[in-house]
Input
Amino acid sequence: MSYVDGFLLAVPKAKLEAYKELARTAGEVWKEHGALAFVECVADDVPYGEVTSFPRAVQAKDDETVVFSWIVYESRERRDAINAKVMADPRLKGDVANMPFDGKRMIFGGFAPIVEL
Output
């Protein structure tokens, strides 16, 4: 069964194009190193909930949008090996202060699928 890394973050609307550029580069790097799929999605129908919601989870501000993304791998072992290569790849070495989002509010984690159709 495959393995999935998932991400949820708030991106300033004014920096969405810069984020897309970063995501395209990151996707190319992950795929070159063996990821099966790399998907980035911007909020389209994501209401602000009274108790919980995607915007609340990342403390999205009025001038931000929510991005939901995931990377699919063959297995947890392949994910660990691929991520080690990705983290060492010079194409993703950049100034953290100039990132087009606040990494402190990013939610991420690895997931083992329980149903795959």
In short: The first strand starts at residue 3 and ends at 12. DSSP finds three helices and four strands in the chain.
